Amino acid sequence: MKKVVIIGAGPAGLTAGYELLKDKNNEYEVVILEAESQVGGISKTIKYKENRMDIGGHRFFSKDESVMDFWKNLMPVQGKNSFDDEKLGRDKPLEEGGPDPEKEDDVILVRDRVSRIYYLKKFFDYPVSLKFETFKNMGFVRTIKAGFSYLKTIFVKKEETSLENFYINRFGKVLYGMFFEKYTEKLWGRHPSNISADWGAQRVKGVSISSVIKDFFNKLFGRKNKDNTETSLIEQFWYPKYGPGELWEKLASEIEGLGGKILKGYEVQKINRKKNKIASVECIVNGKVEKISGDIFISSMPLKDLVISMNKDEKIPEEELKIAKGLPYRDFMTVGLLLKKLDLENKTNIKTLGNIVPDCWIYVQEPDVKLGRIQIFNNWSPYLTKNPEENVWIGLEYFCNENDEYWNMSDKDFIEFAIKELVSMGVIKEEYVLDSHREKIKKAYPAYFDTYSEIDKLIKYLDGYENLYCIGRNGQHRYNNMDHSMVTAFEAVKNIKSGKKTKENIWNVNTEKEYHEEKKQES
Fold it and tell me: Do 2-35+265-327+450-507 and 128-226 have matching folds?
């Protein structure tokens, strides 16, 4: 049997492990190395006391049917309404004969997608919608300016040399300034004029005013087409009862049931090479070095760390090493707050427990606070909160750099800072806070500036190692969603099983505009 060593037990690494082991006539021994004590990567669920936190928010939705089938086969979709749906009398399109989430765990719920922008202490739909309320909140003068600004982009297109120009071409300068400029700068710590347009091409590739107009008329005439609906415009998504980590823990259990090994606390420090192949990796485990050899290596560890680990064996060519060391990341912190209530009025027609606002995410566009997004965990799943009828459990999301002034603040000081920002926005009063918790996540977001523009040279070099496959968000330094990360794993396993030498199909996932957003792809 060929031994496959997989670095990282996030969505990509776990998917690769399962795909290698699932066949009856399995030819592979699979060992997955995970640096943390918990699987799932940034898709793990953090349990704090009797409440659960989703790090960054993970909607389970894909245009790729093989991904949807993968999730559904792992955990069945609910057959009855979930806790809050049943109490509020909401109907969902459910799987026939599926489980009752009140009685069973390992269940996928069907959830409403509501995400809005908080700007000028008012709510705007995200993406911006053609509603009377939108124009009312913007005001007459700003609406007229936005309209003419967008019309200008129809006739005069900017060269997409930056993310700023990418957004202006799709929304016009006025809407870009209102809804994208400051938030993007919070997220990346750089102005959009200094960020590659590649980020927009991957994350919001099909979203524009024209797509919003098409979506408006499709709804007006009752037309629905999943294949042509932009991911950012979907109205419902799947979500595991106890958060995304529940699904990845279930997959980890399946892998171990098939004979695979998942070694936690194994942080790869050094990668040993032999000619054009990877020979082994060395991990620090309980203060000791443990060497693990293999025939095939699949890496979802950050590309930067992968190359630096290889350089500890024999020297990497100077140019490629410089590119790897210069690849930037954005780190992430989230503060969980358990509240008596919110000071935000639910003016929508969507019913919620306690009549809280129905948003999963609230994008904070206010320029005078550092806060980037607010997650309302009750609305992702009522089972993330101990008492969803009585309390509101939220996550305050901050984007930062490891070891900057915010990262280095004590938990107590940073939580106090976050609460003050929320109070200044009129979202809560300080006395509403019942409990709090902070989580830090390193390298949460691969960034698209500095040496990223030269990444193709680094990819070409790494592809020269015939038994090395780079997959996943950090493994490819690409801001992929979970489904894209899984598809990179599908493609890598196909290549391994078929003996295919080129790795272009793995790297090409989510790089073409039509991928996922404009047509189905087989995986």
Answer: no
